[in-house]
Amino acid sequence: MLLAVFFFSLALKLISRSRAFKGGNGIKLGCHKSVTVQRKVAFTEQDYSVLPAHSPKHLLTLTQEIPNGGAGSSEGSVASRCCTFQVAGQQLFPSARGVTGAAGGAVPRAGRCRGRGGAAGGAVPRAGRCRGRGGAAGGAVPQPGLGGGSAHRGQLPPRPFRPQPTRARYVIARRRRRARHVRRVVAVTAMAVPEVLRQLSHRAWEPALARVHRAAVLMDAPSAEALHWAGGAGQLLAAGAMAVGALSAEAAVPAGAARVVLVLSGALRGGAVAAVRGVLERGAVRHCVLVCGDEAEGGGATELEETLRRWMGEGGCAEVVLRDPPLLAPVSAELCLLPALAALLPPLPGPGGPGSAEVGLGALPAELRAAVRALVGDLDSLFTALGLREESFAVGAFSRVVAAELASYTPARNRRRTATNKASVIFVDRMLDLAGAVGHHGDNLAEKILSVLPKLPGHKTDVMVNMVELTALKTTDETGSIIAPGCLAQPNDPAAKALWESFMNLKQKEAVMEARRHLVEAASRENLPIKMSMGRVTPEQLSSYIQLFRNNLKALENHCGLLQLVLATVHTLKHPQTSKWDNFLAFERLLLQTIGESEMPSVLNQLLPMIKSYNERTKDDYACEDFLVLLIYIYSVVGEIKCAKKLDTAEEEVKKALVKAICDEPELSPLLQKITGCDSSLNLTSQKATDAVDGIFRSLRDIARVRMHMKQFNSIHNPGSNTHQASYKPLLKQVVEEICNPDRPDPVDIEHISSGLTDLLKTGFSMFMKVNRPHPGDHPLLIIFMVGGVSVSEVKMVKDLVATRKPGTQVIVLSSVLLTPHSAVELLFAPDRLQPDAHI
């Protein structure tokens, strides 16, 4: 009993000390730089009685500045604070360090403020020395309850200072107690977070740009993809690079190059070691610069330099630059990708109990452990550049492992002690809802473009756009081979970037109309003879507008990025796979109705007649890859399945039909090559196809069990009723709705990951102490990291939900790859996806 009382009193002391060390709004004091936070609090008509009669009826702005502790202040001391109320440029009720007010006077400045936050986060000093500053009127404005003031420095009376409450203070306190109904806008940085992320994506290339003059640059595929979205290879050429190429053991270095700059997206390990060693050991390189990332447990630069010099031989010079910000691919304003981790996917639970992710990091395979540590290092570098002090939450077993590693990562713990910008970071397992990755729910033009057009070589996100319509070439190649492709990433063209944002955020019809508008405006600026037509926008109409630019080189150069996006739209609308999109959507809706009314064997039996061999299929029938998409959708939506003989029999019939269809393919698609492990149909045997299909169905059974331990988010299928049809409810939508719930209930499946003793005490003692448990909706910046990839429709859904339900909150979606239905199948079933540096 005595021990229990002792530990309880110790916990109370720690919590009170942590509260005394923080401001009223949880902003850490004693920071190294001045930080300004602005909050806007909505007032009702009855509250305006405390404001001046001539002030306009708008939001009351509170500006709080936390400067340095000043000379002589020791680390950990409480810094002085500045807190003023401003309405229409006037200052009302100053409560701490003096700032010139409306009358030009100054308020006393508290040397040491250790009071709790006053109204709307202001600091009220309890005692201490006070200095008055002379204002425009030359007099000092006394604080309420202080008595007369002076324009000269003076001392407060020795008695402790306790200001008398005024009506304004009561009003503001009441508004704070009703905070769940008050809209607060907090500016955590001087600019929007998306713009900061774009600047960071450029800053990550500064070490390479500073060293590429008269050099040959070799980089791996993820680095090339990040550079593609962050400004393009033109930056390297403009900085003086002689050549830019892909990193491989056979890569050639130009004879006149003074050095070779090697850019890696991660650490030097795996296949990157063989590629770098192959380039250096040929003897043509005497000066090498390696720009790479640093893993969580990574070695130092000195050891790497010694290794590089040994590979080059005697007389070689080596330099290693460990990049600080990670390589980011800013796809849109709300979406940033980490291309180096494109193969990261949470593991599936085993058939006989919890999966390896539920046990911990030590139970994961070695390559998956290395990927988790690389992810933690990249996130810490990113949050350090943003100055974030994050609260981590996890949805799913693997996300819990990632969040726990980030919470215990030593550099991250040091960063959180000094960072001032607060954010909530929610990690969500992709495996909990694969229907969102393979489904066709979104009416989004960008998603269709990314799904039907071929990928750029070596890229996971961007696609190739055939630009032959703008040339004098006449091709009869029915395969549609592309000589010099265009692309979607146009980071240096403002008009094209604006159009791409429209593709990401608007419905297809609106986005196509926006493409026509941009094209008409561009033609008008170039004085091209365009004939504007109203009504429905067709691909033929857009093609006729594009032809106007064909023979005008200046117009082509000025609007090249815009023309690439419009041509991508034209090719997508004409693509035969686009007509299948609506067929997929209709069939998925039918499956949702069938799942709610029938057992799983009945659903599979309905799917069986649609599996046809190559010779039996028409252009409207589903191919083998399409059936894999439908199977993932079915097993992900239906959830946990009770094993029975009927289900086993139905699955065996589907397996036989699928094996026969795969073996009858005259030429294996790239996806089937990766799944079967055969590069040609000539090498494919019936046994290899059977083994591959058996492995697919084992994974499908695991997909159906992945949500069995969830309590709140255990279903993504709404069975419907007599008045409503059955529907699919995305898990990510459920998570965001729970975060934005105004009632703020304690989330059941959104687990808070404690990062220190204070957080642990808050979580553990909250049931019998008046301590608010951390909630993912507490902070003005919401970061959602989808572990395993995200789709375009999910990004748009998150943006719309947060804007509607929690306005004023900034939201950023981070992930490793932008998924399409077929890329999700490849990521799930490709056996070699976790091999290190398979892209080299």
Radius of gyration: 31 Å
Categorize the overall geometry: globular
Total beta-strand segments = 20
Number of DSSP helical runs: 29
% residues in beta strands: 5-15%
Tell me roughly what share of residues is in helical segments: 25-40%
Q: Please state the average pLDDT score.
A: 77
Based on secondary structure, the structural category is alpha/beta
Q: How widely separated are the two ends? A: 63 Å
Unreliable segments (pLDDT under 50, ≥5 consecutive)? 18-167, 177-191
Biggest sheet details? 7 strands, mixed
Neighbour order of strands in the largest sheet: 12-13-20-19-15-14-18
Describe the structure.
There is one protein chain. Helix 16 (508-525) runs antiparallel to helix 19 and helix 26 packs parallel to helix 28. The chain is of the alpha/beta class and 840 residues long.
In short:
This protein has 840 residues and is α/β, with parallel strands linked by helices. Helix content is 40%, strand content 11%.
Helices and strands in order, then pairings?
Elements lengths: L1 H19 L14 E7 L18 E7 L15 E6 L2 E3 L16 E2 L19 E2 L35 H11 L15 H11 L2 H4 L5 E5 L1 H10 L3 H5 L4 E4 L12 E5 L7 H10 L6 E6 L8 H12 L4 E6 L6 E2 L4 E3 L18 H4 L6 H21 L1 E8 L1 H12 L1 H9 L2 E9 L5 H4 L6 H8 L41 H12 L2 H18 L13 H9 L5 H6 L1 H15 L1 H22 L2 H8 L16 H15 L6 H19 L6 H7 L9 H20 L11 E2 L8 E2 L2 H9 L11 E3 L3 H9 L15 E7 L4 H14 L4 E6 L5 H9 L11
Helix pairs in contact: 10-11, 14-19, 15-16, 15-19, 16-19, 17-19, 20-22, 21-23, 22-25, 22-29, 23-25, 26-28
Give keywords.
single chain; 840 residues; alpha/beta; seven-stranded mixed beta sheet; five-stranded parallel beta sheet; 11% strand; globular
